[in-house]
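Input.
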Amino acid sequence: MKNIVIFGAPGSGKGTQSALLVEKYGFKHISTGDVLRNEIAGGSELGKTARTYIDDGKLIPDELMIEILASVYDGLGQTEGVIFDGFPRTIPQAEALKEMLAKRGGQVDAMLELDVPEAMLVERLVERGKTSGRADDNEATIRKRLDVYTRQTAPLIDWYEHEGKRHAVKGYGSLEEINAALCAVIDAL
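Output.
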């Protein structure tokens, strides 16, 4: 089984490319946002605990998030692989994911980084906001999200490089070109 982290700034196309990879390879897709919503909606004990943090306007602690992800991961059953989307976001989360997978005899096989220039990210997200109606896709909020990404999440690029897992792919061009580049990395694993 392959464990893949899909990585990039907001608007880099992680969700779009994850869906294409799931379709091609039969991988399972673990999106932290979806996982949290499902755990809360399902009323699980982990979901109830997560909700208390969310209701108080706090971030969910890394330990709780990894516990929720481990629960979802363990429930996947037989699969060709898993794509982690939206996790990890920090080096401590990457270390926790590495430990969680190691306990199950696995590892992150590759971190696929979708590299997109910032001006293009802003343009994509503003455009998405016009069509999706997402309130957080306005230029001021987008710039804040990109700043948070640069400060908190981008250090993972060097961390995964040091681990020998980072594979940077040009995240712009046609969907097919981007997907072909990602598939080339996965096929070489």
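The longest strand covers residues 2-7.
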